[in-house]
Amino acid sequence: MGKNKKYSIYILECCDGSYYTGITSDLQHRVDVHNSAGKYCAQHTKSRRPVKLVFSISNIESGFLARSGEKYIKSLTRAKKEKLIANDENMINLLLKRIFNDDV
């Protein structure tokens, strides 16, 4: 992950209703890759296409911070992920605090 890149953490909803969480430096391209089932498509989404982007947080300045946020989202229950997707302010603040290790 390059020095000057900005990263996004994203959640995709798959056609079977499951969620996939990832990070990328090019969000639209990554969503397109997930929908293409090509070489770089995640195994989870390959058989669950089409997928749609349901949540993202962008402009994260380091891959380390983005991975931290991704790991946190992956640890959440489905109900808490759905709160994030619905832009629940408390869940968003918890995520931001986790990513930036700061009081939000």
UniProtKB/TrEMBL annotation:
<comment type="similarity">
    <text>Belongs to the UPF0213 family.</text>
</comment>
<protein>
    <submittedName>
        <fullName>GIY-YIG nuclease family protein</fullName>
    </submittedName>
</protein>
<feature type="domain" description="GIY-YIG">
    <location>
        <begin position="5"/>
        <end position="83"/>
    </location>
</feature>
<dbReference type="InterPro" id="IPR035901">
    <property type="entry name" value="GIY-YIG_endonuc_sf"/>
</dbReference>
<dbReference type="Pfam" id="PF01541">
    <property type="entry name" value="GIY-YIG"/>
</dbReference>
<dbReference type="InterPro" id="IPR050190">
    <property type="entry name" value="UPF0213_domain"/>
</dbReference>
<dbReference type="InterPro" id="IPR000305">
    <property type="entry name" value="GIY-YIG_endonuc"/>
</dbReference>
